[in-house]
Every structure is written in C-alpha cells, then in structure tokens.
Write a structure and sequence with these properties.
Layout lengths: L4 E18 L5 E20 L4 E6 L3 H13 L3 H15 L8 E7 L9 H17 L7 H8 L5 H6 L6 E6 L4 E4 L5 E7 L6 H8 L20 H6 L3 E6 L2 E4 L2 H9 L1 H21 L4 E5 L6 E5 L5 H15 L4 E7 L2
Helix pairs in contact: 2-3, 6-8, 8-9, 9-10
C-alpha cells in the first residue's frame, strides 16, 4: 500500500423492489434485482501518517446545487466506518492495517438510490482485505461484518465490483448471481433532489408486515437475468411494451415526500413515452431503491449512436435539472 491505488466503485439500479416481510431482529425482507452500471465513483488510496478522507464532486449543472450542499455536510461515514471495521477485524487476526489517505472523486449522485456510498465502502473494504490477504476473496465473516455497515455492501463486494447482476431475497447477504444472456442498454435519470433513506425506512416500520424466519437461502434453478426480468412485478403498461416496474418505495415516497413523488411519477411517464417511440421490444421503467433515480432499460440491440440519441432526447424532455447517463452491458 505504499503507492497510490485507484479504485472504481460502480453505481447500481434496482430492477423492481418488494418489501415482503420483517424478521424478528427488525430487518426487512426485500426482494430485488441488482444491476451494476458503468457510472463510477473513483477512490485514490495511499498510505499516510494518519487516516484522512478528501472529496471532489462532479456532475451536470442540474445537480451542482446538491453537490454544493454536500460539500458542506458530506462526511462519508461509511468510508470512516469501513476503515474502523477493517482495522478492528484484522487486529484480531494479528494484522496491523496501515493508516490510509483517501481522495473520493464523487460522480454518483447521493442520495439517489444508486448505491454510491455502499459501493465506495465495498471497494475500499475489498482493497483493505487484499492488502492483508493478497490474492484472496474476503471471508464470509468479513462480508457479514460489512453488512452491518450497510445492507447493499455485500452485493458490491460479491458481485457489483465485478460487473455482475444479482437477485436479492431477504437481507443484504442473501444474493444469487445472475447471468446476462444478451446485451442490455439503459439510462439513469437523476433529479436535483433526493429522498432520505432513513425517513423512507421509518415509514416502512409502521407497515403491518408478516414476520418471517431467517432461513437459509435456496439456490434458484433459473439464474438467467432475462428470465428474472420477465417475473418482475409491474404496476402499469402505459405504452405498448413499456412496463412501469413495481417498487414499494414508490408508495412510501407518496406518503413521506409527496411533492417529489409527483415529479417522479410525471418523469416516469416521460421515460415510458420516449421508450415507446424509440425502442422496438420490451422496456422497463422505474425508480431505483429508495432514492429518486429513475431508470429505463431494454434488451433491444442498440448501437452506440442509437443509445446516445435516446440520451439526448431524454435530456431534452426532462430538462436541465436532471442528470441523464447512458449505460451498456455487453456479453
């Protein structure tokens, strides 16, 4: 760890999200498909006389106001907690972790539901583990400890940083890897406002949910992403072959952040209209996680200039207050 090392932390989208129960320990049973996308934060890590974290923010003019706000309040608690967790874990193994200086180049909007903070933490934890155990994968015990810091961190540690999708059934570590059998194109659209995840989950805690047991996860026979996509519940098909994907946090947002929820609903129909007019084949539109980021994805075969054309169209329709990014998964 003497020289600086650049780490790339990908964003993710949730292709559908259902909250189906509550465990005895208070955690919620969640079902979702996680898909990492090629929008990255970058962390530059090097040894230092003491631990330190610095921040640089990037974004379009439409999200710059939020970035300016975050400069004053963003303290990256997950990164600090990740350093502390890794150090305490390794010291019990009689391994001393050097102090580190981290410069976080923040491109993933926060809070947006794209998992940027969890991805940053996961990338750092993987790096710290490999600095102690070169060439090895983190132990189950280490990943379980990481889950206490953030429910999405195990996904990024096991799948996301490798560019692999996964199906979640339960809590953070109950993941099944998914294979892509065809290319997938998509667009992420983020407004210049966010939803508070703690406030969203506070509202969910008032729901009457069935109590479920923390059983061992059963491996699905079908691990093909295309098959899983056909099973995602959707609430509406406002245009032919365009599905509005069900996310239970849509309902929560209507209660907790009604004005923002109205804006997102209008934007979702804008995305659906654009997909209907430009895509031949099935498309999915929805909100990612508990944030304000919207996505539109399709398995239709699109070349680069076609994807860029749709990106420009979405930017024009949504306006300057929105950040619109294209992503593409090849095989």
């Amino acid at each position: 760890m003497k020289n600086s090392t650049a780490l790339f932390a990908p964003a993710k989208i949730n292709l559908g999200l259902r909250i189906t129960g509550r465990y005895a320990n208070g955690y919620h049973r969640v079902e979702s498909i996680f898909l990492p996308i090629n929008i990255f934060d970058r962390l530059v890590v090097r040894e230092s006389p003491h631990d330190a974290i610095f921040y640089k923010f990037y974004g379009s003019p439409g999200v710059q106001k939020r970035a300016d706000f975050l400069r004053g309040v963003y303290k990256a608690p997950l990164l600090w907690n990740s350093i502390a967790m890794a150090r305490s874990f390794l010291v019990k193994k009689e391994i001393k972790l050097p102090y580190v200086e981290i410069t976080l180049h923040k491109r993933i909007p926060s809070p947006s539901g794209l998992g940027g903070a969890s991805s940053d933490a996961a990338s750092l934890l993987l790096y710290l583990w490999k600095s102690a155990y070169p060439g090895t994968h983190p132990s189950h015990e280490f990943i379980t400890r990481a889950e206490r810091l953030g429910a999405d961190i195990p996904f990024f540690m096991r799948f996301g940083t490798k560019g692999s999708a996964a199906h979640l059934k339960g809590v953070g570590h109950e993941l099944i890897g998914l294979k892509l059998t065809s290319p997938m194109a998509g667009w992420v659209c983020v407004p210049n406002f966010g939803f508070s995840t703690p406030q969203m989950y506070s509202a969910v805690r008032t729901w009457e949910l069935p109590v479920v047991e923390n059983n061992a996860l059963e491996q699905d026979a079908n691990t093909n992403l295309a098959l899983r996509l056909t099973e995602i519940p959707y609430s509406d098909e406002p245009y032919h072959q365009v599905r509005l994907v069900t996310n239970d946090f849509d309902t929560v947002a209507e209660e907790v952040f009604p004005r923002g929820a109205i804006l997102l609903k209008k934007a979702k129909y804008t995305l659906a209209e654009v997909m209907h007019k430009t895509i031949k084949g099935l498309s999915y539109v929805g909100m990612s996680g508990s944030g304000t980021a919207l996505f539109a994805v399709t398995e239709a075969a699109l070349v680069r200039h076609e994807r860029e054309k749709i990106q420009h169209l979405l930017k024009a329709r949504l306006g300057s207050a929105w950040l619109v990014e294209n992503f593409f998964h090849s095989l």
